Amino acid sequence: MVPLVTRLPGHILIVPKRPVKNFRDLEPTEIFDLSLTIKFLSDEIEKFHEGTSTTVYFQNYGKTDDGINHMYVHLIPRVKGDMKTGDEIYGILQSYDKDFIQEYNNSIGMTSKLSETKLENLTITANKYKERIQKSLALIKDKII
After folding, report:
1. How far apart are alpha carbons 141 and 124 in whole angstroms?
2. Are 78 and 44 in contact (CB under 8 A)?
3. Cα Rg for the chain, rounded, in angstroms?
4. Phi, psi angles (nearest 5°) of residue 81
5. CB 10: neighbour CB atoms within 10 A?
6. pLDDT (0 to 100) of residue 66
């Protein structure tokens, strides 16, 4: 999914189908599926954004979190020089839930409606990723069938 709040270009979230609070709560088959999804999508977004690597960050729901109440995974394609230090991204991601809720309330708030520009930009980005992923899946299908 393309998140409402991004940290760098190409930042996406992977959310397990079954909501769980922590990675360790996933069943082995769910871990396998999640791992394959991370592998496939990290390759795709890195190529799409001409990145040199991808940050994979698991966000678990902690006992004191006021944020999103299930685990998810950040995938962020990286390019040389995108941050002052390579590890800076981890500090930024630690506050993601709170930042997301603040942005959500500022963007949607009581109106329950995203601005047309924000929604249009999210839709355009999601459609570009969808097209790229469908092409890659077709190539994989051709190779294994």
Report:
1. 26
2. no
3. 16
4. 85, 5
5. 22
6. 58
Other beta carbons less than 10 A from residue 91's beta carbon: 10
User: Is the pLDDT score of 95 beyond 70?
Assistant: yes
The Cα diameter of the chain in Å comes to 50
118-132: pLDDT as tens digits: 778 878 888 888 888
Strand, helix or coil for residue 58: strand
Let me know: does 74 contact 13? Beta carbons within 8 Å: yes
Give the whole-angstrom CA distance, residue 126 versus residue 142. Answer: 24
Pairing of β 72-78 and β 12-14 = antiparallel
Report d(CA 116, CA 21) in Å as an integer: 32
